[in-house]
C-alpha cells in the first residue's frame, strides 16, 4: 500500500511528499534496508546529498554517486568521527544486534578514531563499544 502511494507521488512529481511518506515509514522500522535505500535515492534525486549519504554510509558496496553523497555527509560534520557516530546512532530503536558484520566494522573503525581523538569516550558510545568488544570476544574463541 505504501509503495503504491509513493509511486503515485512520484508519478505526480511530488518528490517531497514521497520523501515524507518514507520518512514516516522509517520511523516505525528504522533498519528496513529497502525503505532506507528508497529514501536515500529520493534524497539524492532531491539533491540532498548529506541525508542520502547518511543512509548510504553503512552500505557494503557504494556506487560513485553514493560515495559522493557519503563524502558530503562526512564533510558536513567536519569529518569528526564522534559527530558521524552521533548522527548514525541517533535513531530511536537503533539495534546494534541487527547490524551485519561489515557494518559493525565500519562503526568500529569510527569508534577507534574517537578513542584517538577524545580524552574520554562519550557516553552515547558506551553501548556500541560494549557490543563491539562482545562480538570480538565471541569470534576470538
TrEMBL record:
It comes from the Bacteria. It comes from Flavihumibacter petaseus NBRC 106054. The lineage of its organism: Bacteria, Pseudomonadati, Bacteroidota, Chitinophagia, Chitinophagales. InterPro entries: DUF6584. This is Tetratricopeptide repeat protein. It holds the Pfam family DUF6584.
Amino acid at each position: 500500500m505504501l509503495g503504491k502511494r509513493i509511486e503515485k507521488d512520484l508519478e505526480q512529481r511530488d518528490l517531497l511528499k514521497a520523501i515524507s511518506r518514507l520518512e514516516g515509514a522509517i520511523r516505525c522500522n528504522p533498519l528496513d534496508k529497502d525503505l532506507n535505500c528508497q529514501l536515500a535515492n529520493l534524497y539524492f534525486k532531491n539533491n540532498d546529498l548529506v541525508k542520502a549519504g547518511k543512509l548510504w554510509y553503512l552500505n557494503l558496496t557504494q556506487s560513485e554517486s553514493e560515495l559522493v553523497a557519503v563524502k558530503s555527509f562526512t564533510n558536513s560534520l567536519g569529518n569528526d568521527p564522534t559527530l558521524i557516530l552521533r548522527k548514525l546512532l541517533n535513531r530511536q530503536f537503533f539495534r546494534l544486534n541487527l547490524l551485519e558484520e561489515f557494518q559493525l566494522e565500519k562503526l568500529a573503525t569510527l569508534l577507534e578514531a574517537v578513542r584517538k581523538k577524545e580524552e574520554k569516550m562519550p557516553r552515547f558510545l558506551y553501548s556500541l563499544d560494549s557490543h563491539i568488544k562482545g562480538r570480538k570476544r565471541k569470534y576470538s574463541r
